[in-house]
């Protein structure tokens, strides 16, 4: 139920924060999505969409960090602290 | 698809799985709270990549599964009324009430509609002024903002024929109930990423401290889930119990302020009964008084009949991670996805349905 899917903002319509709508592209399909909770989003950014509402703007720098973390995985597997 | 495919990459997933194997020196029991993650774990066979010392316990994070029978019975009664269009997310349609489900009401000519968003239900209400349109608002913090927005839009449009049957639940109180129980087996937690996208991570800090459990905010793709498990195991091995957020591409530590203010505008915290667990104080959301005119429970008089539940169903133990679905005597015999005895077999995110769909098939092949 908490499933949310990333999509790309193609166009934005309206100024009223409660009714602002975007066309958002998910793979091959496009859907109308409310932008009521992402007031600062711009066209071409990616949003995370749940039940017709964008709940978060995806942070590209943070998105890369997972793979940076993975590059350091060998040193990360050296444990520190109070192992028992 | 960007931000999806790269997190399903098999070689990255394998690297995390190997790293988990390297650092694991003793048994650890980790609970993934969210049913969406349970589904992904079974679908991608993530638990089979893990060393045998690590057991994943499936949490109560399936709103469909924890909605009490009494609430389903109310929905069924309202949906059968002749002037009602009853709207719901698809997976609520097959949840058994005491006698039948919403699909049955639909087959008997009831106005039951599956919608993608509560905003579609508001639209239906404005297109059908002669009907009363009711939306079944179930869900966790992830779904609360869009449900709140639907109420705000209905008010703004001056609709008097839109109502909500609210059975919203909150994650942290349920987590505390599980961690504080004398039967608790959970040593580490994967917090549900999309709940945290709304609420942030701060609520978990006192919980991590009080119960000395590491809590890692985790996404829904295989690489995300394996990273969550890796960071959780690493903390357990190092004797730490902190809140970490590797899902920061979607989750800010303070959450989403606009979404949170929508929730507090429309909803207030109320006690809520969880199917299989019982009443938990301050664990749900209900409409605030100023939005009471949208409350389906006030609009519709429903009878209070005693609820009937299958005696053999151990959903409560499954939802608290005390038993696995396969340990239920009815699993795969008298309880099947197309005739479920309990809610965890109904929703795709329920632990019983996930085990049936992915485990059973593999056993047969
Ligand atoms: S398998 Fe069916 S009867 Fe058993 S706990 Fe799960 S839902 Fe209940």
Description of the molecule:
The complex is a heterodimer of chains A (84) and B (365). Chain A has 84 residues and is of the alpha+beta class. Chain A has helices at 60-71, 73-76, and strands at residues 5-13, 21-26, 29-34, 46-50, 53-57. In chain B, 39% of the residues lie in helices and 19% in strands. Chain B has helices at 10-23, 35-43, 63-66, 69-79, 102-107, 118-127, 144-156, 171-180, 193-199, 204-211, 222-238, 257-266, 296-299, 315-319, 351-364; strands spanning 28-34, 54-61, 84-88, 112-114, 132-139, 162-169, 188-192, 215-218, 243-244, 267-274, 278-287. In chain B, α2 packs parallel to α15 (351-364) and α6 (118-127) packs parallel to α7. Chain B is globular, with a radius of gyration of 21 Å. Chain B starts with 9 loop residues before the first helix and ends with a helix. Residues 312-315, 318, 325, 328, 330-331, 335, 340-342, 344-345, 352 of chain B line the site of iron/sulfur cluster (SF4).
Observed structural traits:
heterodimer; A: alpha+beta; SH3 type barrels; 5-stranded antiparallel sheet; elongated; B: 365 residues; alpha/beta; Rossmann fold; 2 domains; 6-stranded mixed sheet; 5-stranded parallel sheet
Describe the structure concisely for a colleague.
The complex is a heterodimer of chains A (84) and B (365). By secondary structure, chain A is of the alpha+beta class.
